Amino acid sequence: MWAPDKSAAPPPKMDSRYTSTAGIGDLNQLSAAIPATRVEVSVSCRNLLDRDTFSKSDPICVLYVQGVGNKEWREFGRTEVIDNTLNPDFVRKFILDYFFEERENLRFDLYDVDSKSPNLSKHDFLGQVFCTLGEIVGSQGSRLEKPIVGIPGRKCGTIILTAEELNCCRDAVLMQFCANKLDKKDFFGKSDPFLVFYRSNEDGSFTICHKTEVVKNTLNPVWQAFKISVRALCNGDYDRTIKVEVYDWDRDGSHDFIGEFTTSYRELSRGQSQFNVYEVVNPKKKGKKKKYTNSGTVTLLSFLVETEVSFLDYIKGGTQINFTVAIDFTASNGNPAQPTSLHYMNPYQLNAYGMALKAVGEIVQDYDSDKMFPALGFGAKLPPDGRISHEFALNGNPQNPYCDGIEGVMEAYYRSLKSVQLYGPTNFAPVINHVASSKKVRKKITVERVSTELS
């Protein structure tokens, strides 16, 4: 769901050519057979329309990609919402596969968010920009500026799109910072400080990559620890300059600049030490005041590197997926003799349950070494006495409900369908308990087997 704090966006519908959502997610190794590279697109805007009466707009950017065949525009992802600004630098990125030989049409729509609704028609349209991914990548410094259009007779501002090729670094870092004796910026209080992190680009510009939370009314804040991928922080270049700006938060969005400092991943990796105590410097104040030293200090409290483990890493490490089938045989599914039933016994094609079993089972069975799957049913009357059961073996053997592969599960399902009577109620607790207890048994058997081999 679209969070009311305007920091998150709903999951987008995906175009089949694109394998990542908006945001900083895991980077999968691309197959060498696919002539593509993965790029991260950052979005900033300047001089957006102001649609709010008593404050500034609360902009969000929505990316659409155009299908190759039907030319249909499909939503790819959304940035976060930034309150009270006409010049947003969005933290959330769009990660796309770039194909040199294809024209990849993109559309960026801007909205002023007025409510919690994820329905874009409920919000004020701020304009849009059309371009191609190749146009962004091929611009000087991979930085494209275009006017925002879409509202007749109005200047809608400018969008700034930057692209950077991503490497395959999968490490992430958990960091925590505190500050000491920051400048007082509020007239009736102290300051409400927060940090903004930027990574440097080859052309000398900077791309925003993280914002901390705001700590209210203090000159000595301790920010919460946060996790960020190394790719987002420096794209795997440990000596790349990282700029950190310190601001005093203001409700109207005109945050007061306190100062800044620079560092690098390599410096930060030293952890808590005298090397990671940074003077926060405001260049304007330094130029005006001869006795000016700094506007406070920021200290790194902790630095922990974590490797982002992929699904493939688990599989390579020997992880097995145990697949158990439980089928709903309650009467709410409809009479199997009727075409409207999910259990309809169609002589020419699979019914809804059969299609679901085949679709899931044929994928999962590749990750199970013995391909023997327990198959259960619930909510039916069983022959010969018509007793109601919420946990019965589809193969008729309660001591050994395992079926050989997904084809064995399908055969057992259709055989049961012909012999049981759909009934009810819907009670799947027994099959959940069955799966939980069978996992314990399998674990015990594995431990005993290992102990025997060791002895």
Describe the overall structure.
This protein has 455 residues and is of the alpha+beta class. It has three domains: 36-165, Sandwich (Immunoglobulin-like), CATH 2.60.40; 171-307, Sandwich (Immunoglobulin-like), CATH 2.60.40; 320-454, no CATH class. 18% of the residues lie in helices and 32% in strands. The strands form six sheets. Strands 4-1-8-7 form a four-stranded antiparallel β-sheet. A four-stranded antiparallel β-sheet has the order 3-2-5-6. A hairpin with a 6-residue loop joins strand 2 (59-66) and strand 3 (73-78). Helix 6 (352-364) packs antiparallel against helix 7. The longest helix is centred in the last third of the chain and has 26 residues, at 429-454. It is elongated and about 95 Å long. The model is unreliable at 1-34 and 443-455 (pLDDT under 50).
N-to-C terminal Cα separation, in Å?
54 Å
Strand numbers in spatial order across the main sheet: 4-1-8-7
CATH topology of the largest domain: Immunoglobulin-like
How many separate structural domains?
Answer: 3
Helix count equals 8
Using only C-alpha atoms, the radius of gyration works out to 29 Å
Regarding quaternary structure, how should these chains be classified?
Answer: single chain
Averaged pLDDT? 86
Molecular shape: elongated
Beta-strand content bin: 25-35%
The tally of beta strands, per DSSP, is 23
GO cellular component, one term: plasma membrane
Pfam family, one: C2
Protein name: Copine-8
Organism: Zalophus californianus
